Amino acid sequence: MQTATPVRKVSRPRADALRNRERIVTAAREMFVEFGPDVPLDEIARRAGVGNATVYRNFPDRDALVREVVCSVMDRTALAAEVALEETGDAFEALSRFVHAAADERISALCPMVQSAFDKNHPDLEAARERLEGQTAAIMERAQRAGQLRDDVSVGDLMIAVSQLSRPPAGTQCVGVDRFVHRHLQLLLDGLRAPARSELPGTSVTMEDLRRA
């Protein structure tokens, strides 16, 4: 008689453990935006409402936490593009909704962290980057096919503009400048509408152009 091989159950993280991890990432994102990537991990733990050991159990070092935050922001921004494409019938309105959502995710404050010491080619980071770039391209292409978005701009142009316009000027606090960001993004969106009212110098900027810069 053949004995059946017992099936080993794969343990899944408990719900409270997942919630703690999400709280840590959320707190880190907020504090990185406010104080930069060198904020003490103890302070992140305090804002997240967890112990220091919980932070280190989830993220063995600062690079792991920074990478998780950057991936989380890119994933959330890509999701905003997906939702805008699915729920918004007007192509340019979908683009506008996405641009404002990307600014709310503070992608401008987190972009410099990609230039830090951690592995920029980490599989998780590359996957999040590809998803974001793909969704951004899709939402721009839809608006261009509809004749609503000028055809001399590309993904890199949009990312640079959103990053620059949602980044506070030197000497001003990030939180205090929030009330101006969406006003200036709307000025950008008006300038992106087709037909174009002026000729842009140079050529459209791709993400590959930005990586080589």
Describe this structure in words.
- With 213 residues, the protein is an all-alpha fold.
- It folds into two domains: 14-60, Arc Repressor Mutant, subunit A (Orthogonal Bundle); 69-212, Tetracycline Repressor, domain 2 (Orthogonal Bundle), CATH 1.10.357.10.
- It is 63% helix and 0% strand.
- The chain has ten helices and no strands.
- It has helices at 15-35, 41-48, 52-58, 62-87, 91-104, 107-110, 123-145, 155-165, 178-192, 207-212.
- The model has no long low-confidence stretch (mean pLDDT 84).
Secondary structure: elements and pairs:
Blueprint: H1 15-35, H2 41-48, H3 52-58, H4 62-87, H5 91-104, H6 107-110, H7 123-145, H8 155-165, H9 178-192, H10 207-212
Helix pairs in contact: 1-2, 1-4, 4-5, 4-7, 5-7, 5-9
Summarize the structure.
This protein has two domains: 14-60, Orthogonal Bundle (Arc Repressor Mutant, subunit A), CATH 1.10.10; 69-212, Orthogonal Bundle (Tetracycline Repressor, domain 2), CATH 1.10.357.10. 63% of the residues lie in helices and 0% in strands. The chain contains ten helices and no strands.
**Number of beta-strand segments:** 0
CATH superfamily of the largest domain: Tetracycline Repressor, domain 2
Choose one word for the global shape: elongated
Low-confidence stretches: none
Question: Average pLDDT, to the nearest integer?
Answer: 84
Helix and strand pattern: HHHHHHHHHH
Keywords: DNA-binding, Transcription, Transcription regulation
Protein name: Helix-turn-helix domain-containing protein
InterPro entries: Homeodomain-like_sf, HTH-type_TetR-like_transc_reg, HTH_TetR, Tet_transcr_reg_TetR-rel_C_sf, TetR_SbtR-like_C
